[in-house]
Amino acid sequence: MRPTAIILGTLLLAVTAMASDFTGTWKLSLAKSKPSNDLAGETMKIEQTGPHAYRTTIDSVLKSGQKEHQEINRICDGKEHPSTGVGFKQEGATEICEQMSSTRKVTQKRDGKVVSEFTSTVSSDGKVMTNVRKGGGDETLVFERQ
Known about the structure:
The chain is mainly beta. The protein has one domain: Lipocalin (Beta Barrel), CATH 2.40.128.20. Helix content is 12%, strand content 55%. The chain is built from one helix and eleven strands. It has an eleven-stranded antiparallel beta sheet with strand order 5-7-8-9-10-11-1-2-3-4-6, with no helix packed on it. The chain is globular and about 35 Å long. It starts with a helix and ends with a strand.
């Protein structure tokens, strides 16, 4: 019985460690990025709020000086869930979030139709996260861990 508990505990720690690759505060490296809009800067904070649940807080500044704030709650279990948070239109919005160690894929839907997909990858040293979005304005955003 004890060896089983030790193995299960070790597996739980390993899964938690893999999932934690995305948590933390990330700052946009504009020089390394190809944004789809007039983005001048962005800071993103990812917090784990449950076993597969995350809150992403995004504070953006556009070249015009306009500031934007979003908070997005995600469940990364590979199933479709309603999009919840603040700073974006939620009506009819759902997403599917899948996380595999250093890669996370999010498929965003509105009224049942895919509107965008993005893949986030954390570098092997954990210092850089690259987000590649297709649909809804293709872009590549590179973030550095703070």
